Amino acid sequence: MSRTPSAGMAVVIVLFTLVAGTGCGSNSPASDAAGALPRTTGAVSPSGNSSSSTGTPPSAAASSPTAPTTPATAEASSKSAAPTKPPTKAPSSSAPPAAGAKPPPGSWPDAGNTGVKPGIKLVPKKGEINVNTDGAVIENIDLVGDIRVEANNVTIRNVRVSGPQGGDINNWGILQWVGYHGLTVEDSEIVGSSTTEMRTGIMDPGGVVNVRRCNIHGISKHGIDTTQGVIEDNYIHDPFWFAAADGELDSIRISGSPDNGTSLLIQHNTLIDTNTVNGAISMFETDGGQPTRVTMEGNYMATWGFCIFAGGASAPTSYIVAKDNVFGAKFKDGYSYVTEWNRHGTGNVWSGNTWEDGRPAPLI
Questions:
Q1: pLDDT one-digit tens code per residue, 229-275
Q2: pLDDT tens per residue, range 134-188
Q3: Least enclosed by CB within 10 Å: which of 103, 178, 291, 295?
């Protein structure tokens, strides 16, 4: 399905496994899919000493996927479902992206109220952290590398994950693996490098994931990629543009359907990229699953492309709710705040959305 405008569209005993190295080539989906990682019995803290678990299972309903796919297949499906649409003029990937739009005055998420909490001392680490214990807590780490979660109800908080300088592609910053659920990521920062592409900030081919008060930036494809859980109070902004990523830049990507009994709430986030043709929230059919049970409420979105790509004007999407969102006004010619909205889908609701200046933003 094309995203080109057309006429009519206006992550207790604490142990850890740390894979050293700055290249993070070990997180390639192709190599991971070939064999399981060694199992460990604990989680990760900065000191590696024993401590009591402070994790709390997330409140959202969790269930294992009924038809799991690997990140490799998920990405392949995504690319087949969403034709590429690179910007007319690609920003240089050798320097930080130019400052984009800022949220309007008020209580929107920004760099001052998202990311690692003030006063937290972070311990430096490098490589890939593998988490294999249910209920583990990973906190207070400044990691150059990535985190891979193969456990349920893991909490990651006050962590900074950044891509290495001058290495292989980072396919993700944080990954919840297939068959696991209940990951909570909160008060953390995930940032890509201008020389080593980080494709997805938080990738979830597993079950429910909850992301709160995170600052995610410098990503080349998807800030958060999931179909179920809660995404709230985050600041996702200013991606890097890499030609190898095919220009598929989305702050939040939804590919296919959530598991039975689950849904996705996207609430009170700031989603900004006014430098590339992208989407703030994009929904696509994947492996036969159509987007459903997605609520987008009270978000600020400013993009150069479409703010919401809604899955298909005639596709069988259902229970897609867009309510009380605010849209910036800097669009490339021919783009706007919504496209491919199915007006006749069961339970689909468009209500109370406005431009930044307060004018109504109706379906066109």
A1: 999 999 999 888 887 666 678 999 999 999 999 999 999 999 998 77
A2: 999 999 999 999 999 999 999 999 999 998 777 667 789 999 999 999 999 999 9
A3: 295
Range of the domain at 58: 17-355
Residue 179 within any structural domain of the chain: yes
Under DSSP, the state recorded for 24 is -
Q: Where are the alpha helices (DSSP H) in the chain?
A: 29-33, 71-81
Strands 235-237 and 215-217: parallel
Q: For 85-100, give the DSSP string.
A: ---SSPPPSSSPPPP-
Contacts of 284 (CB under 8 A, 6+ apart): 1, 78, 81, 82, 253, 254, 255, 256, 291, 309, 311
- Grouping H, G, I as helix, E, B as strand and the rest as coil, residue 72 is helix
Structure tokens given for 360:
């109504």
The string of DSSP letters for 163-225 reads PPSS-S-B--SEEE-TT---EEEES-EEE--SSS-B-EEEE-SSS-EEEES-EEES-SSEEEE
Ramachandran angles phi, psi of 149, nearest 5°? -105, 120
Residue 134 domain-assigned? yes
The answer as to whether 263 is a domain residue is yes
Q: How many domains does the chain have?
A: 1
Residue 360, in any domain of the structure: no
